[in-house]
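Title: [Solved] Cadherin 11 3D structure

Original question kept below for reference.
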Amino acid sequence: MKEDNCLHAALICMGVLYYSHAIATDKPNHARPSLHGHHEKGKEGQVLHRSKRGWVWNQFFVIEEYTGPDPVLVGRLHSDIDSGDGNIKYILSGEGAGIIFVIDDKSGNIHATKTLDREERAQYTLTAQAVDRNTNRPLEPPSEFIVKVQDINDNPPEFLHENYHANVPERSNVGTSVIQVTASDADDPTYGNSAKLVYSILEGQPYFSVEAQTGIIRTALPNMDREAKEEYHVVIQAKDMGGHMGGLSGTTKVTITLTDVNDNPPKFPQSVYQMSVSEAAVPGEEVGRVKAKDPDIGENGLVAYSIIDGDGVDMFEITTDYETQEGVVKLKKLLDFETKKSYSLKVEAANVHIDPKFISNGPFKDTVTVKISVEDADEPPIFLKPSYIFEVQENAASGTVVGKVHAKDPDAANSAIRYSIDRHTDLERYFTINAEDGNIKTVKALDREEIAWHNISIFAVEVHKQHQEAKVPVAIKVIDVNDNAPKFAAAYEAFVCENARSNQQFITITADDKDDSANGPRFIFSLPPEIIHNPNFTLRDNRDNTASVFVRREGFSRQKQDLYLLPIVISDGGLPPMSSTNTLTIRVCGCDSNGSLLSCNAEAYILNAGLSTGALIAILACIVILLVIVVLFVTLKRQKKEPLIVFEEEDVRENIITYDDEGGGEEDTEAFDIATLQNPDGINGFIPRKDIKPEYQYMPRPGLRPAPNSVDVDDFINTRIQEADNDPTAPPYDSIQIYGYEGRGSVAGSLSSLESATTDSDLDYDYLQNWGPRFKKLADLYGSKDTFDDDS
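Solution (posted by the thread starter after getting help):
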């Protein structure tokens, strides 16, 4: 007991809290030993006895971050069966055993060999056991105990983020929540004030404040203006130990941005804008731009532009370019410098989105004056009308005036204008135009039934500036005149039965007129006056542009007459009316008792004329036999003709042919075989063909006879030339005659007239005087030779 009291005193000095726990186990043959760390003590000099237990469960404490030179004594374990003779050995196992915590196996003292950090590990669970030193036999069951690391304030507060970003609308009320920042402390919150944090603001006054306990940042000033300052940097501190001196602290930066609200109206930087535009500008062309400045951004800075007043409201328009926030002034209609040289506009710029909270800052709009001057430009001519429509009667005489177009030069120079027709629109050249005054006239008669409308284009150009050109469409309507008589609407062919009854209708006819409806219907149908009392048929005008034809009598016979031609006069309703006589073909047909058509041919009564079918067949057979005989006769006769190939034994070199027609010269091979005139060397290897006459013969026209000698030779020659030109059988034929060999010589000598011994005295040219004026020169040269000789 004395030893236990000493251990108890030692543990109290170390400041270790004592907890005991015993686990009792009944062992029938030996006492229950006890393993304990210290004993409780009562009054001075009095020892409190306790009941014995096998193990005493202990909980030890050790301060973190101990930096002394010697290991820290954590506590001591002791067993009741330990008599101090050293036979008991204490063994320590569990978390950190042998590394952080070591035990003296004889005394049971436990030491911490390393510095402990509670934030790294708050407690360790260990197991102690007493065993026999010699045999290592457990003397008691193992027992667990806990070593807790006692906290000290060794960790400063840390914020979740190093930097925070927050937004708050500008002009927010005081106390508006911006953002909440949060810091944490790794120290034990259950032990002291090491983890009790207090927030404060180091930078950012007087604009913002922070709640000490929650870390909520709020606005501290009213009417903060984004346009004056948009971004604020605030530094927040978190300090432990409840904010008292000696506590550790941490800081974070908060960037607060003021978001925009529509608290500023748009403003024009100037009161008047000056612009100019050419009168040649086309609608939609940009004239200029205006811009109202709004310091707000985003949709709060959107500005819409409109024209609210001015003398150019109808001539100009303005649109908004939302990318540049500018108002774009554009031309709406064509301008005329000569009519008006300047315009004035009042333009308004207004915010698109207005915040009701700041309506008192309004009005959120502004106005400006825009003055636009019109610049003169060299303009093309302008027609007085955008298009023209004229009328002209068909069949009007050439040169009829159709209408007149007029254009003028809009410029101050007022140049003269010249007119012309675009010939691409008048390919047939029906019209012409006076280049000076623009009068359009017809060139030829127009036919409405061919073209009812003519669409042409007229050009107008300035005389001194040909590039300035204008074009206008002109539509010319051809007015109908009654120049077409009505005709049958179709090629009618009627049929009437032989047994037709009197006054029986057998066809209804109608008419068609190419003229306009005003000169066409209503049509009037009638019979010609000479057959108004036709004994066979009658006509009734139905007064609806149709007419019905009736049978007047009964008893038609195909044998007597199978075809009737009925003339019908059709008149139109034009002024003056026109009419035409149309012939209706009516065939007589055989019908049954019900009036159904059976046959319209004349075979029945032809057979009754006395010829039977057999007789007709015999006649046809005779005709065929005669045709066969004729064909055979012609064939045999052709075979007897001279063959086309000339054989040597049949080669006749001298023939005397008498004919009363002028010869064809060397081309005439019918009268004389000229094949012998070819190269005699090649005659053995080449058998020539006789020339081939045309298949048809020319029949001389009556009246083309040779003229007598008393007739003028000029007329005679012309007559013969005309006869030869119109004679398809006259040579030369479509053949080629080759004379490639001149010959080796002739016994008869040359036939050339150049070697003729005939003298001029043997020739008499007096007859040339009778050949007419075309041969006068020739007659003078040859016919006057005797006279000349006499004179000499």
